[in-house]
Amino acid sequence: MTRKIVFGEIPEIEEGSWFEGRKEMMPSSFHRNWGSGIDGNGKEGTAAIVLSGGYEDDQDLGDVIIYTGAGGNDTNSGKQVEDQQWENRGNAGLLKSMNEGLPVRVIRGFKHKSDFSPTSGYLYAGLYSVVDAWEEKGKSGFRICRFKLEYSGNNNLRKTPEEIELDYNTKEKKRKEGIILRIIRDSKISNEIKNLYNYECQVCKTTILTKSGRYAEGAHIRPLGNPHEGDDNSNNLICLCPNHHVMFDKGSFSIQKDLKLIGCESGFLFIHPKHNLNVLNLEYHRICHGYN
Amino acid sequence: MTRKIVFGEIPEIEEGSWFEGRKEMMPSSFHRNWGSGIDGNGKEGTAAIVLSGGYEDDQDLGDVIIYTGAGGNDTNSGKQVEDQQWENRGNAGLLKSMNEGLPVRVIRGFKHKSDFSPTSGYLYAGLYSVVDAWEEKGKSGFRICRFKLEYSGNNNLRKTPEEIELDYNTKEKKRKEGIILRIIRDSKISNEIKNLYNYECQVCKTTILTKSGRYAEGAHIRPLGNPHEGDDNSNNLICLCPNHHVMFDKGSFSIQKDLKLIGCESGFLFIHPKHNLNVLNLEYHRICHGYN
Question: What is the ipTM for the molecules in this complex?
Answer without folding.
Answer: 0.76
